[in-house]
Structures are given as C-alpha cells and as structure tokens.
Write a structure and sequence with these properties.
It contains one helix and six strands. It is mainly beta. The strands form two sheets. It has a three-stranded antiparallel β-sheet with strand order 1-4-5. It has a three-stranded antiparallel β-sheet with strand order 2-3-6, with no helix packed on it. Strand 2 and strand 3 form a beta hairpin. 7% of the residues are buried. The C terminus is likely disordered.
C-alpha cells in the first residue's frame, strides 16, 4: 500500500501494467475514490510497459492511468477514458452502475 505522507523526505512511485479495469483508493477516513479504465493489452506503454502509475511526495498523491503510445498524423485524435467516482462511507458500490449517478464523497452536492 502506498500512502501520502506530509512528512516524507523522498518521493515514491509505483508503476505497472495493470490488467484490471478498476482501482479503488481510500480518502479521508473511509470514503472511497474509484477510477476505471480499460488497459490495452499488447499496447506499447511508457515507463517499462506501465498502464498504471501512482506517485506521492510530501505534497500530494497522484493516481494515473496511462494509454499506449501511438503515432498520430497532424490533426488526428486519440482518446483515453477514465471514469471516476466517489462513495461515502455510508454507500455501497453496486456493480454495473455508472459512477456519475453516485453521490460525491467530497462535497455531497451531487446527489
């Protein structure tokens, strides 16, 4: 488990190819931050093939999903989708529900 520590004197980073499409992180006690993405198996990823990276130092914790490297022609587009959501300690996650329909754990204003 990687934790953000305001007293840390050195940064820490974890990077890996994560074949799962769901990551969960505990915030502020027992509230839960959820990030989903679909890693591309067989894609060429930076940082030794990593599709998921977590970085922390004394100031912040970063949760990053990474898309595969692609060559784009001028004017071409690519897309990397990572729906996110949050659940308060009083909610339970129900498989298949869109994260946009859940209550926001940070401000409770999106009910």
């Amino acid at each position: 488990m990687l934790r953000q520590d305001p007293k840390a004197t050195t940064p820490q980073k974890v990077a890996l190819f994560n074949p799962e499409n769901l990551r969960r992180f505990t915030l502020l006690g027992s509230d839960l931050f959820i990030k989903r993405y679909t890693p591309i198996k067989g894609g060429h990823f930076p940082d030794m093939g990593s599709s998921y990276e977590t970085f922390t130092n004394a100031d912040f914790l970063e949760l990053e999903t990474v898309g595969p490297l692609v060559n784009l022609a001028p004017g071409a587009l690519t897309e990397h989708v990572e729906p996110v959501g949050a659940l308060s300690q009083h909610q339970t996650e129900r498989p298949g529900n869109d994260t946009e329909t859940r209550s926001c754990a940070c401000c409770r204003s999106c009910n």
